[in-house]
Design brief:
Shape: globular
Strand order of the largest sheet: 1-2-3-4
Helix content: 55-70%
Number of domains: 1
Order of helices and strands: HEEHHEEH
Distance between the termini: 24 Å
Radius of gyration: 20 Å
Strand content: 5-15%
Oligomer: single chain
Largest sheet: 4 strands, antiparallel
């Protein structure tokens, strides 16, 4: 009985940690976007070095400005999609809260924070504020923001987990069950 209570309290603590990471991403994302709106004029570019600019862009589409030229329906589509994905991730994090899957949980938390950060932009402005521009051999890569970066790193963690960790954990559970 006491062991179950300890496990459950650890589960709550784990969930709180991963949700806190998401909240940190949201806060950092919104703080940086606020600074860009306040101090960088739309479409201005401030060179950081030879391959990075700080800029101020408004993206009504998704990644790589996908659907940016649509008639406006995409705003609501991406709000609903981002909200749905965020809810699913919260449930997923809750379900794995006691399993100690650090890479999976970190990946989900980063994706969650990034998704909510961009949903906030779409609700408040009707578009996502992008401000980091990387130049590859002088050519600009599509601008992005902290939320996009968190989603990308989180997706990489999810891939690493899927390829190298979760499959092995599931296999070891099956082997343990077969041995008993």
């Amino acid at each position: 009985m006491a062991d179950t209570k300890i496990r459950e309290s650890r589960g709550y603590a784990s969930y709180a940690i991963w949700v806190s990471l998401s909240i940190l991403v949201i806060g950092l994302d919104q703080l940086t976007k606020w600074a860009i709106i306040k101090w960088v004029d739309l479409y201005d570019k401030w060179p950081v070095n030879t391959f990075i600019n700080i800029t101020h862009q408004q993206n009504t589409g998704a990644a790589f400005s996908f659907l940016a030229d649509a008639s406006g329906w995409q705003r609501w589509f991406f709000i609903v999609l981002g909200t749905g994905v965020s809810c699913a991730i919260l449930v997923w994090l809750w379900r794995i809260r006691r399993e100690g899957q650090v890479i999976l949980s970190a990946g989900l938390s980063l994706v969650l924070g990034g998704a909510i950060g961009n949903v906030i932009d779409r609700i408040m402005h009707g578009y996502v504020i992008d401000f980091i521009q990387v130049l590859i051999f002088g050519w600009p890569f599509p601008s992005f923001n902290v939320a996009d970066s968190a989603i990308t790193v989180g997706a990489a963690f999810l891939i690493i987990d899927a390829l190298f960790l979760s499959g092995r954990q599931a296999k070891s559970v099956l082997e343990t069950e077969a041995d008993s």
